[in-house]
Structure formats: structure tokens, C-alpha cells
Amino acid sequence: MTQFNRILITGAAGRLGSELRKGLAPLAKHIRISDRVEIGDVQPNEEAVVCELGDYDAVMALTKDVDAIVHFGGAPLEVDFETILDSNIRGSYHIYEGARKNGVKRVIYASSVHAIGYHEVEAHIDADSPVRPDSLYGVSKNFVESLSRLYWDKFGIESLCLRIFSSFPEPADRRMLWSWLSFSDCVRYVEQGLTAPRVGHTIGFGISNNRLKVVDDSKAGHIGYRPKDNTEHFRDAMEAKTDIPDPNAPGVRFLGGWFCELGHPDDEGK
Fold first, then answer.
1. Catalytic residues
2. Residue 240's pLDDT is what?
3. What is the pTM of this model?
């Protein structure tokens, strides 16, 4: 099953990065894992590197001698703009420059529902629908999606931008009955992105099986991802909860959920 000599995973200490370390291990002889903090339990086939994505020289070294990049690093939530600028925007630019200068031809990028969070749930959008970020965090995801488009058109670096909705061990609320992406399906989508014969520049929607189908992922069909997990066996427990949400609340109306109810991060605590 080994298809690569070395894969780089950024954000490898995070919730999804930890799952990807395990799930992608059979694909490569070596997995280079990186985060801004020390990573524990390093496996024999892993190379651990502490790296700040905002450090240009460090990222150039990090991306050297790798065959593909799984870029899940960066600030994971709405925070102050300076953090988003350095970790998500500048850091992702460094990743793509590292790919260009070091000859890496494929990147799997952890984009987010928050890139399109202000679309209403009933809009049933697809990959060609306009971006509608719900936060500065979402804006950073829009930036990297556009950056990756440029690097495909101009430099031939393929990207799968995977708009992850809600990836947790299991659904935690009613919204996740349609937004949940199981850990196994997340790994499965990334694996398909790494091994598909051709990716080009693709926007994918990271959701497991559910009966509501709020987005159309057919324009990523050439990736070959087929979810195996399903939210239906969680439905009774979620619907039995007494907290019936207001259907007109922004967190219910829009794809981005509670992010649509946040103010500007600079105003928090004032």
C-alpha cells in the first residue's frame, strides 16, 4: 500500500492531525509530523518537527524532500486577526511557497465550512457557489482556497481543499446530524485526495452520510471519496434532547452554525 516516500502532516498535534498520523501511516515509508508544540508518542516511521508556520525559513526546511503535504496546521477557531494573519494566511503562503520551491506537486488543505458559513442551510450549495465567510477565520480559509487555485493554474501544484464541517468522535447536537464528519471518513477523504490519479484544483465538502444532504459534493466526484459512516444511528438521541433550537437563529439558519453568532474577536471581553 505504500505509495510515497515521505508525507508531511502539519497540525499533527491537533484533533484531526492525530487521526491522520495513524490513518495515513500505511501510505508512506516516512511521515513528517509538525506542529508549533512538541508532539508525543512519535512512531518509528515518523519524523517530528516543531515549526511555526509564520517562520519562512523553517517552513522551507519543513517542506523539503516530501512527496505530498497534508496541511492541517494553523489557528483552529476565530481568534484575533494578528494570530489568523500569521498562522493561517502567512503560514499557508509559506506552505505553498515551500511546495513550489521544493517540487511538491500535491497539497491536501483543511479548509472549512466557515469559508461558506453564511449560506443558508436550505441553499444546497456546491463547489461553485460564492464564498460567504462567517468569520475572520473563514476569510483565512477563502484566502488559502484562492492561493491554492493560483498555485495550480500558474505552477501546477494540485490541491484538494477539503471544507470540513464538524469532525468529532460523534455528533454532539442536532446540527451535527447533517454536518458531522467522522474521523474515519476524514482520513478516508484525505487518503483519496493523496492517491487519486488527478486532483487539479478541487473543493470538497467533508461530511459523512446523512439523510439531509445540505450540500452537493458531486464536483469532487473524481477524487473517489465515498463516506462509510452515517449519523442516523445518533438521530434518536439528538432529537430526544429538550433544547429545541429557534429555526430563525443565525446558528440554525446558516451553514456556519454558532460562528454566525460571534462578534468581532477584538470585542470579546469588552
1. 137
2. 86
3. 0.96
